[in-house]
Design a protein that fits this description.
Structural class: alpha/beta
Distance between the termini: 38 Å
Helix content: 10-25%
CATH topology: Glucose Oxidase, domain 1
Number of domains: 1
Number of helices: 9
CATH class: Alpha Beta
Radius of gyration: 20 Å
Number of strands: 13
Length: 311
């Protein structure tokens, strides 16, 4: 199913969004702010998070992205070797130089991805009430592009929802709200704090190989109340081992992608989709040093990323 079709179909049921301006902008970080929740980062928070490193074990939280990676249609991926040397071509100069070069043709909302603040809005307004006509252009976003997101180096928190629900994977359509978040955090012995990156382990990523269509169509995830709760705690980003992070089927059919609206538009909290949480969960990780420096492609809405966890 097309991502946009899900929104448009449900909007027709609801009669449109029409949210009032006064209840979500200007931002708590200032009327001109474009950084969102990354304002909650600080050198002190980064230094403290770095102190979590005890073993030096490094985890790649990104999945390998390629032609068979499940994605919301019509998204696709293609890579082309543009300067090919297969072992039979010419060599250059006395030192016999050979080389390969490549061209990447892809949607940036593929695989493990970072959602920028210009991705999802409410009635054509995006984070901090910025109007689409003031920053969206065919050649890239003029504000809120992912190239402007500051490097994120902070404490990561893993909430193992498979343990909380006693199911691996957690059933599609299972929502995580305040009660579930608090229970999982208590079980992990963690108090979620300002500046954290919170990641849910649901076991859903294992569905990708056997049922790619089902992986995209339905999964457990964050509910609207849970999104408001975590944003209120000052977290910088929220991720999960699922395509949308938020629960699908949606809690209310007439509110598609309301968690995206809540986090991105209303609170400036970034979303990290398709996070590879399996190894962290297997090792019993609860907190870790989280590091993300995304490619700085000018004006991008989303970005393929490989976040790193260090314990």
């Amino acid at each position: 199913m097309r991502w946009a079709a899900v929104i448009l179909g449900a909007a027709a049921i609801a009669g449109g969004y029409g949210a009032s301006a006064e209840d979500w902008y200007p931002s708590r970080y200032g009327a001109e702010d474009t950084k969102g929740a990354t304002n909650n980062l600080s050198p002190e928070i980064t230094k403290s998070a770095a102190g979590l490193v005890q073993t030096g074990k490094v985890y790649a939280l990104g999945v390998v992205t390629g032609k068979v990676t499940p994605a919301y249609p019509p998204r696709w991926f293609n890579i082309v070797i543009t300067q090919s040397n297969d072992g039979t071509g010419p060599v250059v100069a006395a030192n016999k130089v050979t080389a390969n070069d490549d061209l990447l043709i892809t949607y940036l909302g593929m695989g493990t991805q970072l959602d920028g603040l210009g991705h999802v809005g409410i009635d054509h307004r995006y984070y901090n009430g910025i109007r689409a006509q003031d920053f969206v252009a065919p050649d890239g976003l003029k504000k809120l592009g992912t190239h402007d997101i500051a490097p994120i180096a902070t404490r990561g928190v893993l909430l193992d929802m498979t343990r909380h629900f006693g199911a691996d994977p957690v059933a599609p359509g299972t929502a995580f709200n305040k009660a579930e978040i608090d229970a999982a955090a208590a079980a992990a012995g963690v108090t979620i704090a300002k500046g954290d990156v919170v990641i849910f382990h649901t076991g859903h990523l294992k569905v990708e190989a056997s049922d790619p269509a089902g992986y995209i169509a339905a999964h457990p995830g964050l509910g609207k109340e849970g999104a408001e709760y975590l944003a209120g705690l000052g977290v910088v980003a929220i991720g999960a081992d699922s395509p949308a992070v938020e629960v699908i089927p949606f809690e209310k059919a007439e509110e598609p992608f309301v968690v995206h609206q809540t986090l991105l538009a209303k609170h400036g909290v970034h979303i990290l989709e398709n996070i590879n949480t399996a190894e962290l969960a297997a090792d019993g990780a609860t907190t870790f040093f989280f590091v993300l420096g995304q490619p700085r492609f000018q004006g991008a809405v989303q970005m393929v990323v490989n976040p790193i966890a260090i314990r």
